[in-house]
Amino acid sequence: MPFNNIIKKIFLLIILILSVNITTFYAQDKSGELLKQGKDLLAQKKYGDAITVLSNYIVEHSDTAIGYLYRADAYYGDKEYKLAIEDFNDAESRGIKSDYLYFKRGKSYDKLDNYQSAINDYKTAISINPNYLDALNELADLYYFTLDYASSLNIYNLILQIEPVNAAVLNKIGRIYIQLKSYPDAIASYKKALDIDLLNASTYSNIGYAYYLNKDTTTAIETLNKSMKIDSNYAYAYYIMSIINFNKGDYEQSLNNLNRVLKLDAPELNDADIYTNRALCYLKLNNPTMAEKDLDFAIKVRPDDTLAYYYRGMIYLESERDSLASVDLSKVITLDSSSAGFYLQCGISYKKMGRYPDALIKLKKAQELHADDSLTLFNLGEVYFGLTKYTDAINYYNKTLQVNPNFKQIYLKRGSAYYNLGFFRQAVSDWENAIRYNPSIYYEIKPLLDDARVKAGR
Q1: 34 CB-side CA count, 13 A
Q2: CATH 3.30.1330.10 at 1-96, yes or no
Q3: H-type helices in 44-114, by residue range?
Q4: CA geometry: angle at 151 spanning 147 and 157, to 5°?
């Protein structure tokens, strides 16, 4: 082969090798640029753009964990939590097992209300990095939210070991002690928070509430006034003060404070609670029309508001809208089947409508929950009377008097039951007692009384 041909082939081979290397270099450079661009977009919170760029990077590097990790962050920022979890899983399966991955995946599970998975991931993050404050705070908050107060308290105390000067955590610990009804411990924790931050309106409100629950109303009011002096627009202080006003019987002032709270429109307070409480003020001030409007709104905001249904049912009952009352009071029982009072009022509404079998079921349940309640026993007597089961009615009227000898309205109804059974002497005795306790009914029952006296031979 001529020498020139050999040189030519070598030259072509070199060109080919160089072109391959240059193509590879540019491909690698392009991928690196995609990753950098994706990170930059993520930092700028341009999550949708970051997802697009990082997806292109993953197409070229599907086995590289870092692309999935960054894209998971972008999905999280874009509130696509399920997709974020999938990418965190892919990043983990490709070798990334960092505290950050487990923390962010835990937050994704938390957003999807998958609390146990979130707790597991937060705990894994903390096992890798015991001083990971973000993970510790999220775990403690989640334990509190899921009502595991003991575990929440333990984690908050771990945080204090890392950050002893932490007023926010001390406030949260106080909140736990309030849930545990350990009010002196709550006060002590809030006081430590005030030692750190003396001009914190929130802490003064919290400790004021703790003093109130600890039956120190005077100190509670003093402390709440300090809160309002520091921040005249701090709604929570006015809200707690309204509760104190109400329980002291100062319904006008309670109403004024609740109006102030609504005007401030504090997002940390639940509108349903505010409107339900204001409705109670209106009821105490004999304004059922305004109370009903507030309860309507409370139920609209929170459709499972047991107390709102209960009090609206009672308004309906008092205004003789019995069918509406039975609907609301039945809803109350659906929401809370543990209250004898709810069953009692529902039974009364059915009784007023003449639905005696339904009333009997509810009142029997009320009796099961509270055996010695005179009002329940009396209404059971009334229902049996309505069913013309007079012997059973008398039995329950007798039980009512055993529990409450001052239940004077028994005599009129028990006398009627005796009369219907032909026990005229007992009827006369009960009706005479009824007149003695309530003379205004004399002319109403005189014809029956005279008839009973004749039949009794008196």
Answers
A1: 20
A2: no
A3: 47-60, 65-77, 81-93, 99-111
A4: 125
**Structure tokens of 448?**
């029956």
Distance CA 248, CA 346 (A): 29
CB-based contact 135:106 (threshold 8 Å): yes
Q: Contact, 167 vs 200, CB < 8 A?
A: yes
Q: What is the pLDDT of residues 155-191, one digit of tens each?
A: 999 999 999 999 999 999 999 999 999 999 999 999 9
pLDDT above 60: residue 7: no
pLDDT of 189-222, one tens digit each? Answer: 999 999 999 999 999 999 999 999 999 999 999 9
**What six digits make up the tokens of 72?**
């998971």
Contact 35, 66 (CB under 8 A): yes
What residue segments make up the domains of the chain, in order of their start?
Answer: 1-96
* Dist CA 39 CA 33 (whole Å): 10
pTM of the entire predicted model:
0.71
Q: What is the CA radius of gyration of the chain?
A: 36
- SS3 for 434? helix
Q: What is the 3 state secondary structure string of 300-329?
A: HHCCCCHHHHHHHHHHHHHCCCHHHHHHHH
Place of tokens 């040189």: 7
Q: What is the pLDDT of residues 316-365, one digit of tens each?
A: 988 989 889 889 988 988 998 888 988 998 898 889 889 899 999 999 99
The tokens for 78 are 């874009």
